[in-house]
Write a structure and sequence with these properties.
Elements (H helix, E strand, L loop, with lengths): L6 H18 L9 H9 L3 H9 L6 H11 L3 H8 L4 H4 L12 H8 L4 H15 L9
Amino acid sequence: MEHTDDAPDQRAQFAAWLRQQINRRGYNLDQRGEQARFARYAGIPAGTLSRLLAGTATPDIATLRRIATALDISLGLVLLRAGIATEEDLTVTSRTDEPPLTPERAADELGIHEPAARRAFIASVEALRTPPADDESG
């Protein structure tokens, strides 16, 4: 089986992106002490940040969460840029293939089949779903 290691390239891309994001937040990473200052602000070890910016480390989610918070960007975007998640992973899909839950279907799923019990269940659910006619908050 052929195996290609895309990790070094992904780490280098993430390192470049991360450096750009940190610089955009006012940290000049070319100045002495700025990298350590950002690491302290983000709550991550300076050595970890150094390895991330060098493209020699694969970040863990806890580190990425701290970086996302410090940069004020979504964790999803950071996971995407780090190569840990794909856009498909981050897409929330709705279940459109399933009909909406109705009181009748709920009764079926709960096994309420006896006619009188079923009518009482459906009436109770409908009463709870219907807003009161008068505003009683007065």
